[in-house]
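Hi U.,

Before I forget, here's the chain from the pilot set. I'm dumping it here mostly so it's searchable later in email.
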Amino acid sequence: MAVQSGSLSQQYFNVIAAVTCYWICSISLVFLNKYLLSSPDLKLDAPFFVTWFQCLCTVLLCFFCGWLSKYFPNYIQFPSMKVDHRLSREVLPLSFVFVGMIAFNNLCLKNVGVSFYYVGRSLTTVFNVICSYIILGQQTSKKAMLCCAFIIFGFFLGVDQEDVAGSLSVSGIVYGVLASLCVALNAIYTRRTLSVVGDSIWRLTLYNNINACFLFLPLMLFSGEIGNVAYFTGIMSPYFWTMMGISGFFGFIMGYVTGWQIQATSPLTHNISGTAKAAAQTVMAVGYWQEYKPMLWWASNAIVLIGSGGYTKVQQDEMKRKHNENSRLPSQREERDVLLSESHAEDDK
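Structure:
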């Protein structure tokens, strides 16, 4: 019993640590990207280039950490990094979703304020339900659908309030919806693709970002960003490259903590955690930029948060119900099923 208690405590600690690291890194990266994408100090119109550079930094840091682990194994534990073209091709479907996710995220962030970024990206849970049904064949209860309806209502109320305030960006809304779709797909495909790389988050991060580095090149070419970067007045500024380097480091960390949170929890919990994180991020942004928001604007945020929280509660109740049904087994099979359950739990670790 003591071993089981210790194992349970370790699992709880792992979940808390994963969620906390995800929140800190994600909020920091959002504010930093907002500065790089739309700061009047920089005036660089190249969101794909900023994202491509972050992916490149992630690839280089993966190889660097693998090299450090080889020569200093007592101080750093990191899997050796070798590129297998076969694995790269198998990860490619996830990489397309990954590129869409971070590209639309940055395009949305470029066109809307950080305070509205939460509502603009609030449809992730709704898309997760849709994608889980289409891809995984998972059914959703009526209560869960009602919670999704709340989220959709909050989203449109937030859009309406942005329009009333005269700060609505149609392109930003479209990018936010597409980003929500890609976030939901990314969570599902990450879970399914981890086994391809031996359940190694770092290896998945490496292959994902290597593929992304190549996938972003035609996007930069056709969008004209290569010319924008070439004629950027601050291209030789040490300050600019310092900020880009910091963003690249956070991009590297995000690739890990996102996969860590999905692996420690589930795609659904990852999406709910992202929604809750965005709510805290909204309050921080309103306070930092000293923005005035009407009550209906705050109501839209609250409705989205309540809908997301209600959806989580409905899913938890459904999981408990299924667990209770599965536990009602004939006495002669109880010992065998307990052993099977313990074996599956070890495999999941």
